[in-house]
């Protein structure tokens, strides 16, 4: 999307569509011009109530040169969370997408109060709403006019923030798209090809891909045990962004669960809703989205994105409950349930990344149905052995409207993973499923600061709006940008 700065007033700008934000409260003058009289009348007559997310579209608004005026309600400033504001901006984006307009003019002052973080969310919301899945539809949805340009009223200072928001939105849309693609398209090899193609596009980015022979060679037997039942070969993908002035700066590392389809394996899942297990690679897709964003932003930091990509299928060659496998770390695992496969691929990836001497590692995984039960679809589950890292992620999540909520990793839960036949069992029983999954991972992360994001509830919407959300790309990109 093109960005342009214009210095006309809200009254004089001849645009397809002028967008003005209205904060609730007695003495607020949205634009400080004659337009405020019209707005006051609309509120007075109850034609518009500026609650957060409310939208009114007017054609040929009185006294304005604009063809259309959109009023976006912003509620009251003190009650507005970043999350709710983000939703409202996505709603605005959807409205813009539905109108036959090629450009929209944003009155940034009234929409964001001039706050850079809000400007970023505005860009994110507009870009997010432009995404439409058509890849595997013969009949494309009804023709819509593409929103090609955003015009900013006001000073240039917020152009960067808006651009950053748009870039973040495009990254989230990549994450969503990879998640949405059907599992007969989006296989481990497909993810590897996409990573390779991304590295071609950016000079700071390098990609390395291991096939199954290479993984056998290094000793990633635990990861490979998940892939054994599938005819699709596994891939281990490493994307490196070298952006720091000091090439030896310790990198932040992202590790994504990339189960391109999770049938459960021999511990087969029930049939209902199983299609949604195509989203079991959303951790991997998040890594891809983040790597694209930081490459486009030319982030001055070293970041490594790692993806463990497999398909979890039953077959005569598949891993069975009771099988014992050896991890890259040397520990043995008794696989009591082949549906607890995410931790089996992540543990080898988490061991592998030790060699990067990371500043910190965050893994992202649709790891447990229990996380959905505990936290629902609003908060991502956060589990960490490092309080400082956990606090940083909690705070950033709240600030950017991509929240997470911490669950404990503590010694008494670790016991639940005891096995009579191996060093560790891959499940801990019915209780505290999200915690025992993280406990399993924690056995492989002792040599660096580490946090785990369980995105089972937040990575996609079910029901009529079924589709990937692009979370937690905003949280992670903002963490990568932070110095903490
Ligand atoms: N990918 C699933 C977790 C999942 C399930 C995410 C439903 C979102 C919605 C994971 O591989 C899995 O199957 N986990 C099991 C673990 C259990 C066997 C200990 C689960 O949550 O049931
Ligand atoms: Mn599973
Ligand atoms: Zn899974």
Overall geometric form: elongated
Q: Number of helical runs?
A: 15
* Domain unit count: 2
| Strands ordered across the widest β-sheet | 7-8-10-9-13-17-14-15
Structural class call reads alpha/beta
Helix coverage percent: 25-40%
- Averaged pLDDT, please? 97
Q: Can you identify the CATH superfamily of the largest domain?
A: Zn peptidases
Ions and ligands? ligand BES, manganese (II) ion, zinc ion
Q: Which CATH class of the largest domain applies here?
A: Alpha Beta
> Termini separation (Å)?
31 Å
Radius of gyration over alpha carbons? 24 Å
Biggest sheet details: 8 strands, mixed
CATH topology of the largest domain: Aminopeptidase
According to DSSP, the number of beta strands is: 19
Low-confidence spans: none
From the 3D coordinates, which CATH architecture of the largest domain would you assign? 3-Layer(aba) Sandwich
User: How big a fraction of the residues is strand?
Assistant: 15-25%
How is this structure best described in words?
The chain is an alpha/beta fold and 484 residues long. It folds into two domains: 2-154, Leucine Aminopeptidase, subunit E, domain 1, CATH 3.40.220; 174-482, Zn peptidases (Aminopeptidase), CATH 3.40.630.10. Helices cover 35% and strands 20% of the residues. The protein is built from 15 helices and 19 strands. It has helices at residues 35-44, 82-98, 108-112, 116-130, 159-180, 188-201, 212-218, 221-227, 282-296, 342-352, 369-375, 387-400, 411-414, 433-442, 473-481, and strands at residues 2-6, 18-22, 55-59, 68-73, 103-107, 149-153, 205-210, 235-242, 252-262, 302-312, 324-326, 332-334, 360-365, 380-384, 404-406, 424-425, 450-454, 460-461, 467-468. It has an eight-stranded mixed beta sheet, with helices on both faces. It has a six-stranded mixed beta sheet with strand order 1-6-5-2-4-3. β18 (460-461) and β19 form a beta hairpin. It starts with a strand and ends with a helix. 52% of the residues are buried. Bound molecules: ligand BES, manganese (II) ion and zinc ion. Ligand BES binds next to α11.
